[in-house]
UniProtKB/TrEMBL annotation:
Origin superkingdom: Bacteria
Signal peptide segment: 1-31
PANTHER family: FERRIC ENTEROBACTIN-BINDING PERIPLASMIC PROTEIN FEPB, IRON III DICITRATE-BINDING PERIPLASMIC PROTEIN
Regions of compositional bias (Low complexity) in chain numbering: 28-44
Region span, Disordered: 28-50
Protein's name in the database: Iron complex transport system substrate-binding protein
PROSITE patterns: FE_B12_PBP, PROKAR_LIPOPROTEIN
Main location: other
SUPFAM superfamilies on file: Helical backbone' metal receptor
Amino acid sequence: MTPRPLIPALALALALALAGCGAPSSGTASSAGSAPAASGPPSAEGFPVTVTHGLGTTTIPHKPRRVVALGFADAQIAAALDAPVVGVARNPSAKDGNWPGVTPPYPAALQSLDSLTPNLERVAALKPDLILMTTAQPAFGSAYARLSTIAPVIPYKNELLQDSGDDLTLMIGQALGESAKATELVARSRERLAAFAAEHPTLKGKKYVFGQQYSGNIYIVAAPDGPSAAFFSALGMKQPDELAALPVQQGGAGQLSEERLDLLDTADVGFFGVYTDKERAEFEGRPLASSLDLVKKGNLHYVTLDDASLLLGPNPAVTETLLERLRPALEKIAR
């Protein structure tokens, strides 16, 4: 059977299934110093630069002029920083191939890469001098050493899908030689979050839940220090203690048994990824699901794959997009 396409929201389930096999161990991590010597332009001021990340360090000899973006946040942040992108992994759930919040959108000609499976020959053919994969699928982490022979690579900072969006923006900005732009982008994002919270002061103390159903199992993004939690915290919101206490596995998710669906009612609002009619019918057919106050009050919101990716990996490049998509649900509980 052909595997179902997995974009960031569903990467949680994939990561759980792989049980940590998606990235090389620290023993195999290497510096991108093994990449071929670039025959690019003379080094700009501030270069070479060395970036420390979750798989070691990467040295970038000159200001990048040909950037490849393999993860959804990489595409979003690179666009916001006006990076010279020559190739980007396509969003399989979008008709135009762009990830949500990418501004300006990438033309179809640049969307030449698969977002699920590394194609090293195609990446190499783009002749990149920097490869961004901070939020790329786990298969790209496994190919880190081989990708590093093509060009300097920037993977996740600490843990896949658990890095702060601010941190990723600053790290990518450093790699691009655009630290000032990155710092400004982070500042604007924080100001926008603070303004939204000020406009909706009754959100303070409200509780949220973000999860998904996948292959019959229910996962809650429960990591208390993860990027989703940080986003809602900036609005004054928090996870219910009962859900935050779930054992967190790789990807920042904890599995919720069907018998404990009642815990969803500890939240004031829920955002739930159920991506097919069959899965939605299966979820709503669970006896406890239909009796939830969250459902009866209309505060359990089914989200699309794109919205789930924004919630899973919020970053300064998409703050405005995410706030506007969540605005109706948040304003409802803020009344």
